[in-house]
Amino acid sequence: MGIAVYPGSFDPVTFGHLDIVERGAKVFDKVIVAIGKNRAKSSLFSIDERLELLQTVTSNFPNVEVDSFNGLLVDYMKSKQANTIIKGLRAISDFEYELQMASINKKLDDSIETFFMMTNNKYSYLSSSIVKDIAKYGATVSDLVPLVVEDALRKKFKNGNSF
Ligand code: PNS
């Protein structure tokens, strides 16, 4: 089914994201997990840190690549000859925002399709923001993120970082 891009902030990557990566990699020939800039969010991890974490946790998928991009997603997709965007939908609350993004991307480039996957019920409540909140106050996030991410969160908050 060609090349798909799974864009997001991934600040940091969670088991919810990994579930989408794993299922997307079964559908598409290649999946590029691409870190983009969401102007509405300030981040805890730098782009390089997020890239490294994503690379580590997706290394077992041979057809998954990790990258970052500046500017518009549709321009990045053109540069990668990708024409499908993968997005995970958790709840009705995600729908409006995702519909807006999919519609804007379609308007910017009519050849692009957005492919939605329903998040595994196990992770329907999960978000990077919630993970950061929990980790910040010292509670365990071991059910929510891979071990390397848990360690990275612990380090960040031990050093007094905020987001
Ligand atoms: O995980 P997020 O924060 O919902 O990801 C949002 C992201 C990074 C995919 C989105 O903000 C994005 O595509 N940014 C790049 C700029 C762009 O193309 N904007 C127009 C479409 S919203």
SSE arrangement:
Elements: E1 3-8, H1 15-27, E2 30-35, H2 47-58, E3 64-68, H3 73-79, E4 84-89, H4 92-108, E5 113-118, H5 128-136, H6 147-158
Parallel strand pairs: 1-2, 1-4, 2-3, 4-5
The protein binds 4'-phosphopantetheine (PNS).
Oligomer, anyone?
Answer: single chain
Helix run count: 6
- Sheet with most strands: 5 strands, parallel
What ligands can be seen in this structure? 4'-phosphopantetheine
Radius of gyration: 15 Å
What proportion of the residues form beta strands (DSSP E)? 15-25%
N- and C-termini, Cα separation: 38 Å
Sheet with most strands: strand arrangement: 3-2-1-4-5
| Secondary-structure element pattern, one letter each | EHEHEHEHEHH
Give the number of DSSP strands: 5
Structural class: alpha/beta
How would you describe the overall organization of this protein?
It is a single chain. The chain is an alpha/beta fold and 163 residues long. It contains 6 helices and 5 strands. It has helices spanning 15-27, 47-58, 73-79, 92-108, 128-136, 147-158; strands spanning 3-8, 30-35, 64-68, 84-89, 113-118. A 5-stranded parallel β-sheet has the order 3-2-1-4-5, with helices on both faces. Strand 2, helix 2 (47-58) and strand 3 (64-68) form a beta-alpha-beta unit. It is globular, with a radius of gyration of 15 Å. The N and C termini lie far apart (38 Å). The model has no long low-confidence stretch (mean pLDDT 94). Bound molecules: 4'-phosphopantetheine.
Brief description of this entry?
With 163 residues, the chain is α/β, with parallel strands linked by helices. It contains 6 helices and 5 strands, in the order E-H-E-H-E-H-E-H-E-H-H.
